[in-house]
Amino acid sequence: MPDEVVMLITFCLIAAVLVTGALVYGWVHTTKLKIRHGYPLQSMWGQPLRPSTTAEAEERVSLLTQENAQLKAQVGSMRERLETVERIVTDGGYRLTHEIERLRDGSEKVQ
Q: Nearest 10 degrees: CA dihedral of 26, 36, 41, 51?
């Protein structure tokens, strides 16, 4: 066999191995990402594979739900505080000065 034919066969085999390796790596990486982010996996026939739920997973969901409720309450509190700050900042200088003077005099309560 001439050297060119051997080199061509060798090149084709190396190319086939590299392409196959890249495809396998892509499949493994995609599956790993699906698992990490909770996407359903698929069987060979395209049917979704559902992982079995464990007590640990259910407890984690419960803890995350509680944390979510706490964070929503904090956001609501911050929203109220921000509205108060916005009202103070956008309040006219004259009105604010007038109310401060009334507080100093003690003649009326500010509404």
A: 150
- Residue 43 near residue 36 (C-beta atoms within 8 A): no
3-state secondary structure of 50: coil
Q: Say if CB 40 and CB 49 are below 8 A apart.
A: yes
Single pTM value for the model: 0.38
pLDDT along the chain (111 residues), means of 10: 88 96 94 84 75 81 95 95 82 73 71 52
CA gap 75, 29 in Å, rounded: 37
Q: Where are the strands (E) in the chain, listed by range?
A: 41-42, 48-49
Q: How far apart are CA 17 and CA 10, in angstroms?
A: 11
Does residue 48 contact residue 40 with C-beta atoms inside 8 Å?
Answer: yes
